[in-house]
Design goal:
Blueprint lengths: L23 E6 L3 E6 L8 H13 L13 E2 L8 H13 L4 H8 L2 H4 L8 E7 L6 H10 L4 H13 L14 E3 H6 L4 H9 L3 E7 L19 H16 L2 E6 L5 H14 L3 E5 L3 H15 L3 E4 L5 H12 L6 E4 L11 E7 L17 H11 L5 E6 L4 H8 L4 E5 L10 E6 H6 L9 H12 L3 E5 L8 E4 L16 E3 L4 E3 L6 E3 L12 E4 L3 H11 L5 E4 L7 H12 L5 E4 L12 E6 L3 H4 L6 H13 L10 E6 L5 H7 L3 H14 L7 E9 L2 H19 L3 E5 L5 E2 L2 E10 L5 H17 L7 E6 L3
Helix pairs in contact: 2-3, 2-13, 6-8, 9-10, 11-18, 20-21, 23-24
The chain binds adenosine-5'-diphosphate and zinc ion (ZN) (2 copies).
The site of one zinc ion has 8 residues, from loops.
């Protein structure tokens, strides 16, 4: 439960000696409830008892320990949580100011949270009954079935699938098959049931694993490194001698992944485990196949699109004597148990999806991974890798906190793509735009398709149109629960709120003026797809965004189709920017850079630079140089030129100067304070008061309260304060004050139903 701290229970006599840290126990909680808890630590003495016993010295009253409840039952014979994991939970709870109960919720697959949540997967198998398990009886069975052709056919199929051959030694055959195998041959359950009723076959249930076995490892598939790559590899090794964390900054396609693979193999040779973190699953499909070819069954995959039961099995395998040696996973994989961790790789370290936004704990998996490494006695090293380091990381790497290794060349010296900037403001003015497309972009896409090459169009907005409005009075439909306009999804014929997910019917007329003409404004990926289909009817188009990739297989299909050339024009949101490696993409179009650049956040340019550089990196991977068409209304912004020149260091210098001037990270630590409540006036008053209380302690370090750009979500009004702490302050002291101030606020009766939380190192 989202409660702070741990609770004390006594161990009843019959369980003495069996309770240890990390096992799950059933405990009474509150008046009459029973919960599953995890033992955080055991002590010989009851802390409460000791405390009271001391007090007894001067008060003279005999303490009672009757309030301490007993553990009801122990659920595990051995711990499901290692000491390192518990300590990581505690660190996350302290650092991100989240109750440890919330950390537990994020960390444990739900099948491990309850004593009956996880069921082993079973499958129905079929075998011969003992009565029919001999050569003669088999012939009798076949005779009996002469007059039941469908049963006879099923029986013969069973015999051949289980490789029971008449005349062959029955002992040597594999004597059972799964019922599904037989069903797959076109037989029905009814037929099989009849054979069972006749006493010829019998069925039984057997536990089967959910984890697929990746086959034998093939280290011989590891590609030899080029001279430049080998040089970087050696530098990383050397850096590991001095620093716990090293940044590998290498342009897209420089072979960072090949270097990781060599490092992983090296850790495996030392009999150590590796954790390989990726931001999200768009990447995992390709990476999984790439790593599986080499590490086979030594590789385990762990991320949120896996079923809970699969995650429980991986967790338990990691605790067993035969764990996976390499874990490839998203954010939550930092919570897995490791026995002998030697290396942690955080790939695409700049990705903001490494930070959990909602719910708590609002932790950053990169920071958690670095902490995880320091908690392990095997002293694992951490390698952060990216083509576009986050400003914080690059700052740490250039000031000596982290090691730094850089790779400026693509593999085989293939050139980085040429980026051409198109001023769409000017073209709009001259009425030369075709919807969201400039003539140059259409020309280049047409040429690429004609040459049998592929193109990618990037638009960071899903849905059909971000707005519909009344042509007459300008009325715009908005969400009833959030302070945003609704996005039109035309294929579903509905309006959707992208903040709460609520859907609405598309109105046929304006409720304000009755006008029947409603027009769409702006472009989402769905509308781009529609228009592209009109312009290039012969193209094989697919779209990749949140709406088309709800399932794990949908992702894989879109990516595999494009990789294999079954589709040749891919439209997508930022999902397509994530490290995908395609061979035949010669043109990438960035339809509108301005939504990214104009985002009201101090990190807008940083995110825009990264996103556009990453998207550009998809162009021209093998063979020849790719082309990127970057459409913007502000071609003169310095950040556009930095993207065009692929000049990370110029970008970094200008951002750093700005951050210094206005005191933003890395020149301060940021904490956001969020207040939420159904009543806007209450949240307004409360945030003023909270601001006052914070200022009493922290003075001008407090900014706000402000209304965030979306000031109401899911019927809760929101206010935000920003705290800027200069380096060198004692953060754990500061956290104590922050906790206190929050408590004081919530103790006020008026504010008791308010949500107040802190977001540490927000993104
Ligand atoms: P990055 O991770 O830096 O984007 P990759 O490791 O994905 O780069 O390399 C880009 C492409 O070049 C991949 O297809 C990869 O297989 C190939 N490649 C890189 N280095 C080598 C190498 N040493 N030998 C063979 N192929 C390589
Ligand atoms: Zn109207
Ligand atoms: Zn909403």
């Amino acid at each position: 439960m989202p409660l702070d701290g741990t609770f004390t229970y006594s161990v009843p006599q019959q369980l003495e000696g069996q309770v240890q840290a990390g096992v799950r126990v059933l405990v009474p909680f509150g008046r009459s409830k029973t919960y599953v808890g995890i033992v955080a630590s055991t002590q010989g003495e009851c802390p409460l008892f000791e405390e009271r016993a001391q007090r007894q010295d001067y008060r003279g009253s005999v303490p009672s320990v009757s309030q301490i409840k007993s553990i009801i039952q122990i659920l595990d014979s051995s711990p499901i949580l290692t000491d390192c994991q518990l300590r990581l939970w505690q660190w996350i709870s302290d650092y991100y100011m989240s109750p440890i109960g919330d950390v537990m919720k994020a960390a444990l697959p739900s099948g491990l949270k309850a004593e009956d949540g996880y069921r082993p997967k079973t499958e129905t198998f079929i075998r011969l009954t003992p009565k029919f398990s001999s050569e003669q009886t088999l012939h009798i069975a076949l005779d009996i079935l002469q007059r039941a052709p469908s049963q006879q056919k099923a029986f013969i199929d069973f015999l051949s699938l289980s490789s029971i051959d008449q005349g062959q030694d029955l002992q040597a055959s594999c004597d059972s098959i799964s019922r599904d195998e037989l069903l797959n041959q076109g037989h029905t359950i009814a037929t099989i049931t009849s054979l069972v009723k006749r006493g010829i076959l019998e069925t039984y249930e057997q536990e089967v694993g959910r984890l697929n076995n990746g086959g034998d490892p093939h280290p011989e598939n590891i590609k030899p490194l080029s001279t430049t790559q080998q040089d970087a590899f050696n530098q990383i090794q050397f850096s590991f001698l001095k620093k716990n964390v090293t940044l590998l900054h290498g342009v897209t396609s420089s072979g960072k992944t090949e270097i990781y693979i060599h490092l992983i193999q090296q850790a495996l040779n030392r009999k150590q485990q590796v954790l390989y973190l990726l931001p999200e699953i768009a990447l995992t499909v390709q990476m999984m196949e790439r790593l599986q070819r080499i590490f086979g069954c030594r590789l385990g995959i762990y991320h949120s699109k896996y079923s809970d039961a699969e995650r429980v099995e991986i967790w338990q395998k990691q605790l067993s004597a035969h764990p996976y040696d390499v874990i490839l996973g998203a954010r939550s994989a930092v919570f897995l148990p490791f026995r002998n961790l030697g290396l942690v790789i955080v790939d695409e370290e700049h990705e903001t999806s490494f930070k959990q936004q909602d719910p708590a704990p609002r932790y950053h998996a990169r920071s958690a991974a670095i902490m995880l490494a320091t908690l392990h006695s095997s002293a694992p090293k951490v390698l952060l890798g990216t083509a576009t380091p986050s400003v914080e990381t690059y700052h740490n790497a250039t000031t000596g906190k982290y090691g730094l290794v850089e790779l400026f060349q693509r593999y085989k010296g293939i050139e980085l793509p040429e980026i051409q900037v198109v001023d769409i403001k000017d073209l709009q003015h001259r009425k030369m735009m075709n919807g969201p497309f400039s003539p140059l972009l259409l020309l280049k896409v047409r040429e690429a398709l004609a040459r049998g090459e592929q193109a990618i169009l990037f638009q960071n907005r899903r849905g059909y149109a971000p707005l519909i409005e009344c042509k007459q009075c300008g009325w715009v439909p908005r969400c009833q629960h959030c302070d945003v306009s609704l996005t039109l999804h035309r294929s579903l014929n509905q309006l959707t709120c992208h903040y709460c997910g609520y859907t609405y019917q598309v109105p046929t007329e304006c409720p304000a003026c009755g006008c029947k003409e409603l027009q769409t404004r702006g472009y989402g990926t769905e509308k781009i797809e529609d228009q592209v289909r009109d312009i290039f009817p012969e193209a094989r188009i697919s779209r990749m965004d949140l709406d088309t990739t709800r399932t794990r297989h949908a992702y894989e299909r879109i990516i595999n189709d494009f990789s294999a050339g079954r589709t040749n024009l891919l439209i997508g949101t930022q999902m397509i920017s994530k490290g995908l490696d395609f061979d035949r993409v010669s043109v990438v179009g960035i339809l509108n850079a301005d939504t990214m650049l104009n985002y009201p956040d101090f990190r807008a340019y940083e995110h825009a630079f990264m996103m556009m550089s990453q998207v550009s990196g998809r162009a021209g991977r093998k063979g020849h140089r790719g082309l990127v068409i970057l459409q913007t209304k502000s071609p003169d912004l310095p950040v556009i030129q930095q993207i065009v020149d692929n000049d990370y260091s110029a970008f970094f210098r200008s951002v750093l100067a700005e951050r210094h001037q206005f005191r933003y990270p890395p020149y301060c630590r940021l904490v956001y304070v969020f207040l939420k409540h159904r009543s806007d006036s209450l949240v307004a008053t409360a945030s003023q008061e909270m601001g006052g209380r914070l200022r009493q302690w922290f003075g001008t370090r407090v900014l706000g309260p402000d209304r965030p750009s979306v000031a109401k979500v899911k019927s809760l009004s929101i206010r935000q304060l920003m705290l800027k702490f200069e380096p060198g302050l004692n953060m754990s002291e500061l956290r104590r004050y922050l906790t206190l101030i929050r408590q004081q606020m919530l103790q006020d009766k008026r504010y008791s139903s308010l949500q107040i939380y802190y977001d540490i190192d927000p993104l």
